[in-house]
Design goal:
rod-shaped
Amino acid sequence: MMSGIGWRLKMNSELVHPSEDYDTLVRQFRSLQLLLGSKQNQIKLLNEKNGELTRQLLEVHSDVIESERQANAELTNRVLELEQEVEDLKFEIKVIFQ
């Protein structure tokens, strides 16, 4: 929620004066309602965009993790192959020098 970020809508009380005329006061109120609705729509759209970007980021992370898993598996297999070659060579040396 935005309050955790510390965002606040501030109105400069020196610049905003409610009208003393009822009709103008009603117009001011309706204008503020429209502004509030607009800001709520902006929040909704930004939250949707945030969700979309979060999903994309998770997909990228998933792809990176899968790629790293594949590379790790290949390297592990190569290490096992080399360890077996070392054991085979040790055995051959032992047979030759016995």
